[in-house]
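Standup notes, structure subgroup. Blocker cleared on the zinc ion input:
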Amino acid sequence: MAQYKYSHYLSNFPDPRFDPAHPPGTAAPQTGIYKCQGCGGEVVSTAGDPLPPASHHQHSLAQGGIAWRLIVATV
Ligand SMILES: [Zn+2]
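Run returned:
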């Protein structure tokens, strides 16, 4: 899980761009931290660059495929 020390650097922003889970290898729609919905792994991606590919890490069958959800966006 993403961690932080100073809460005043982050703000809750209920925006729909945090809702979709993006397939591996697709262009990141926003610069920020993305969490894999299968295993909870986190990566930093830049807007327009490809999100990590399906070969980025291994999942068990129970974890399903890799899907990246934006959890922290930069502004
Ligand atoms: Zn994963």
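Discussed briefly. The mean pLDDT is 97.
Next: hand off to the docking folks.
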